[in-house]
């Protein structure tokens, strides 16, 4: 399979939450690659990975970050591919991740980052949104996303 989504987070402590994005995408049959890279501590490695991931077929990036949450914006500055930011609760978080949410959503004009909810639900939604973006050109994937949605609806209706 060809790499389609690159997932990046700033710290190993983010892995339990960001795993939801990876598992969601893999469950939909989307090839992903996950890395831990820092916008501040490893900027050259981040740039190299984004460029390499694009060369290998990445069409969407998902970036999780807490506190100042610069990682999604830096990834967006390095690519013209869609970037989905997942706000995370950092150890020094303000208001359970509100700081990260506001940092990610307030990107300057011209460098957009789609932003989802804080934490695990946001990571899962980032996976679904990435799949929906890819599904605009992939009918088989669109069908799998539709089946996922139908399964969620069935669970609600079952009580």
Can you characterise this structure?
With 159 residues, the protein is an alpha/beta fold. It has one domain: Rossmann fold, CATH 3.40.50.1970. It is 49% helix and 16% strand. It has helices spanning 15-27, 43-55, 71-78, 98-105, 120-135, 139-158, and strands spanning 5-9, 32-36, 60-66, 83-88, 114-115. Helix 4 links the parallel strand 4 and strand 5. Helix 1 (15-27) runs parallel beside helix 5 and helix 5 (120-135) crosses helix 6 (139-158). The longest helix has 20 residues, at 139-158. The protein is globular and about 45 Å long. It starts with a strand and ends with a helix. 41% of the residues are buried.
What proportion strand? 15-25%
* Helix proportion: 40-55%
How many structural domains in the coordinates? 1
User: How many beta strands in the DSSP annotation?
Assistant: 5
Cα shape: globular
> What is the H/E string?
EHEHEHEHEHH
> If helices are DSSP runs of H or I spanning 4 or more residues, what is the number of helices?
6
Q: Give the C-alpha Rg.
A: 15 Å
Distance between the termini: 38 Å
Uncertain stretches of 5 or more adjacent residues: none
Q: State the assembly state of the protein chains.
A: single chain
Annotated CATH architecture:
3-Layer(aba) Sandwich
Provide the residue-averaged pLDDT. Answer: 96
Determine and state the CATH class. Answer: Alpha Beta
Can you tell me the CATH topology? Rossmann fold
Report the sheet with the most strands, covering strand number, pairing sense and barrel closure: 5 strands, parallel
Q: How are the strands ordered across the major sheet?
A: 2-1-3-4-5
Q: What structural class do you assign from the helix and strand content?
A: alpha/beta
């Amino acid at each position: 399979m060809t790499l389609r989504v690159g997932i990046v987070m700033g710290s190993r402590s983010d892995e339990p939450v960001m795993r939801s994005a990876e598992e969601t995408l893999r469950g939909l049959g989307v090839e992903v690659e996950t890395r831990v890279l820092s916008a501040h501590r490893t900027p050259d490695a981040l740039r190299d990975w984004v460029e390499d991931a694009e060369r290998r077929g990445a069409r969407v990036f998902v970036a999780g970050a807490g506190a100042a949450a610069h990682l999604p914006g830096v990834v967006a500055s390095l690519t013209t591919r869609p970037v989905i930011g997942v706000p995370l609760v950092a150890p020094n978080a303000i208001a359970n991740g509100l700081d990260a949410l506001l940092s990610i959503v307030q990107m300057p004009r011209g460098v957009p980052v789609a932003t989802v909810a804080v934490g695990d639900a946001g990571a899962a939604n980032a996976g679904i949104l990435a799949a929906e973006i890819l599904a605009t050109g992939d009918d088989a994937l669109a069908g799998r996303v539709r089946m996922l949605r139908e399964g969620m609806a069935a669970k609600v209706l079952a009580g």
